[in-house]
User: What shape does this take?
Amino acid sequence: MTATLSPLLSARLSLMPETTRAGPLDGAWWPRSRDLTAEIPPLVAALDERYGRITRVTVNPVRWPVVPRKVVATGHTVHVGWFTEQDPDKVILLVHTAGRCDLLVIPPETEPAAAARLMAAAAAPGSVVTARVLLSDEAVTGRRMHEARRGEDVWETDGGSALQPPRHPVVGARMIALPRTLRR
Assistant: This one.
């Protein structure tokens, strides 16, 4: 019987431009699971070219059920450490020659739209926002968006119109009828 290995999935990663790294984060990482043994190799592979050989990764164990001591990635061993003092929403990668890379960790269960917003915010040039602030802001924004969608659903089931306003034939914008007092 022949065993087949599934190909490594690429890391879902957003990095700040190299010329603007000055804030508390260098970007964001959206892992597919909470399994560091499976998630670290594609992350290291994606960052090796930009930063050089990554030798150590540190996390806060609050977000990771198992923290392995070592993981093989891109042909070398990466040591994994944990610190309860470290921000639980951040992963730190130590590079052999160039220092470190701090990334916001977006929870794997995050909806794609929210993850995209977080990835963009964490990699925005000149951003000085911390991982904790980004995730708390997204939680508030996501809750507001959920409530707004829920309000729309109530409107639709409470006698509101299910018809969408017609689109302008040229630009695709929605046309809204003006009250007679505003018409010329």
About this structure: The radius of gyration is 22 Å. The helical segments are 36-51, 112-122, 131-157.
